[in-house]
Amino acid sequence: MSTPFTKRVHKNDTSQEDSYLNENLTIKDEPIKIYLRIRPTDHSNDYQLMNNSIQFENNSFTFHEILTEKSQEKVYKMIRPILNDTLSGYNSTIFTYGQTATGKTYTVTGTDTAPGIVPTILKWTENEVASMSVLEIYNEQLRDLLVENVTDDVEHDTSVINESFLSQDISFRAQDINLKTNENVSRNFQGKSDNLPLTIRETVENGIQVNNLKRISLQSYARSIEIYKKALTRRKKDQTQRNKESSRSHCILILWFKTRFGNKESRINVVDLAGSEKIGENDLQESQSQSTSHTGNLLNDLISSFHTKKKRNIKGKNLETGNINKSLLTLREVIKKLTSQNDHIPYRDSKLTFLLKDSLGGSSKLMVIGTVDFRHKIETMNTMMFLDMIKMIENKPVSVLKGQMSSEDIILYEKESGLDKRKPVCQKKIKFLKFLKELRKFIDELRNKLYELQMLILKRQIQNRTKIYEECDKKITEMVLGNREK
Fold first, then answer.
1. Residue 102 known to bind ligand
2. Cα-Cα-Cα-Cα dihedral sign, residues 138, 143, 147, 152
3. Is 101 labelled as part of a ligand binding site?
């Protein structure tokens, strides 16, 4: 119901004030922030720090901030502004980039004593209306990590025959092995049929979306962190030359929040990228030489089968590494095209860049944390050059509330969010708009109380009328009975 104090906003209204307010929904004040995190080592003499600049190999790089300690305290301060923007209606993305074993997963997930970005966000937003999804990109395939029976392709499964059989009693027959293998294969195919495939779709209204992705409502921090940790146990990990437990996939956490203004949803993506690594050919050659030296009886067949499986596992690792490097190269190529103002941006060449399209030259806010280890100078230089290139991207964040808020709400929102610095707004006008908003609320409360009072009066009138009718009926009955007696 409209009131004399309600300002009607028409779609065709092109007043100068409303035009400015709609334009101000787009933030142009540092929509992209780049940070560098240095893994603590004994190689601190290889570089020089000066405020937020670093000199390395006769090159100088400048970032918003450089972290050199293991403590997560500065990370918490870094993510607070972008989280506030997300809760206020802006889609955002945080991702870590760097060589394997440089601290990306530590920054994102952390430990029980030093929580990372995700546990901190879940803790801070415990009282917000939120939901969560977790997925990974493994070998250019999307896998929902909130689904319990996520399975892999049979050709990459190493659980059929592993090293443990060598220490067991080899008293079973060859057909037993085939039976177990067939059971495992059927189990894999059955798991695939139970899970709907994840597909990436782009729409004008919602931007980039992942179809068939499981989404869980968050109730408490304890429950949220339990779900997240359980999802991480399903993530692909393996031992590499530089890391005993290396992430072999890109992991993406998506958190949806109900905005503090209006009735819309905004989201923040936290991406833990897999680290690039060289493909090891020596292990493959060694496995090939070993697998050709065993033939004959059942024991030799078992050993030969084991080495065949080992060779297949090494090929699987090389495939993983190749796909990781390919997606990271595509990411660099997309950023390079964006900085050169190229007409065609190859977002769809990789599922990673397609998912991050809104954050790379799009309408979302972006925060990138590059992790480096100065024991590996070439990779460190590549990472810092990559971060330096991202700074040249131009993002134009747009609130999901655009077109959903009145002019007064927009001005108040910008004032509370500190976004009104681009154009000074009269303090008297701010106070008046705030008073007007409170007055509307007061009028609505009065209207509700008036309605309750009217209902109470009507109820009493009905009760009084009922009482009068009952008294009239009683008198009429007495008169009728009196006449009959006469």
1. yes
2. negative
3. yes
